[in-house]
Design brief:
- It is built from ten helices and ten strands.
- The termini are far apart.
- About 40% of the residues lie in helices and about 15% in strands.
- It has about 270 residues and is α/β, with parallel strands linked by helices.
- The radius of gyration is 22 Å and the shape is elongated.
- The protein has helices at about 25-40, 55-70, 85-90, 120-125, 150-175, 175-185, 190-195, 205-215, 235-240, 250-265; strands spanning about 15-20, 45-50, 55, 75-85, 95-100, 105, 190, 200-205, 225-230, 270.
- Helix 1 (about 25-40) packs parallel to helix 2 and helix 5 (about 150-175) crosses helix 6 (about 175-185).
Length: about 270
């Protein structure tokens, strides 16, 4: 017997937020959320992105999951205040992209930063004795300057990652690789400029993106609601009163950013860094 009523999820649009720097925690949360969206068989997904980008591998895994999912449903990405670098990378995993006219986007490129504290260490009389299996095992060590061969190795690494980024944007937006390369030099641009470049499809708000997603799957945009897939709260947070286990948002964001900076030091990043 065929059940005459559609599941509630078939009448709603799933919604997932990607906020802040993209790292392993974001990847884990978003992949779990995408799995839930697929299992509940939502007809469409609204992906809200407000991120300066992040780590290469985590961005690639989210992008790949979105590409697989869009074979089964419509996906519309909505760029918020900022969707740059890795934010663009995962955004092109959606079939359609909407940005605000003033959204900060772009920054298509790769960055890798290390710290050279050699002169400081000399002043305080600290030195390191290194035993290594090969000449490049301590590449990007903070107690010495890079050698020319090391610079070449790292530049090759960055160039390869950059090529992957450019190719993905070209594929996702159906643009020629050379066209993408012409603006993929690390510059940032507005949503209005992104529309002119072909990086986004329309200008509008998140509400406009929601309505478009509803229309794409034959739902009434005036009545269709979004169901936001959120990460389950820790057990302690559910037990304690609202304010008892809450860290001030500003402090929490600052702590998260410091943790991200420390954990990604010396890694190639698809990240907008002013």
């Amino acid at each position: 017997m065929v059940w005459p009523f559609k599941p509630k999820s078939r009448k709603q649009i799933a919604r997932i937020e990607v906020n802040g720097a993209i790292g392993s925690a974001t990847r884990k949360r978003v992949l779990e959320a995408l799995k839930t969206v697929e299992e509940k068989k939502f007809p469409a997904l609204l992906l809200r992105i407000d991120s300066p980008g992040g780590t290469v591998g985590d961005s690639q895994e989210i992008y790949s999951a979105l590409v697989r999912l869009r074979q089964k449903m419509k996906i519309v990405a909505s760029f918020g205040n900022i969707s740059a670098s890795g934010g663009v990378y995962i955004g092109v995993g959606a079939e359609h992209i909407v940005a605000n006219p003033g959204t900060i986007t772009g920054s298509i490129g790769v960055i890798l930063r290390g710290n050279n504290l050699e002169r400081l260490l000399e002043k305080i009389g600290v030195s390191f004795k290194v035993i290594k299996s090969g000449p490049y095992k301590d590449i990007l060590a903070f107690d010495r300057e890079l050698t020319e061969p090391e610079k070449n190795i790292l530049q090759d690494l960055i160039d390869t990652s950059y090529q992957q980024f450019v190719q993905t944007v070209a594929d996702g937006r159906k643009l020629a690789v050379e066209t993408v390369r012409s603006f993929a030099d690390g510059r940032i641009f507005t949503g209005q400029q992104a529309l002119e470049l072909g990086v986004v499809d329309r200008l509008g708000t998140e509400e406009d993106a929601r309505r478009w997603a509803a229309e794409l799957v034959g739902l009434d945009p005036d009545k269709t609601k979004c169901y936001t897939i959120e990460e389950p709260k820790p057990f302690l947070n559910r037990l304690l009163p609202n304010n008892a286990s809450r860290i001030p948002p500003g402090l929490s964001a600052g702590m998260s950013w410091v943790e991200f900076e420390l954990s990604t030091s010396g890694q190639p990043l698809w990240l907008y860094r002013p």
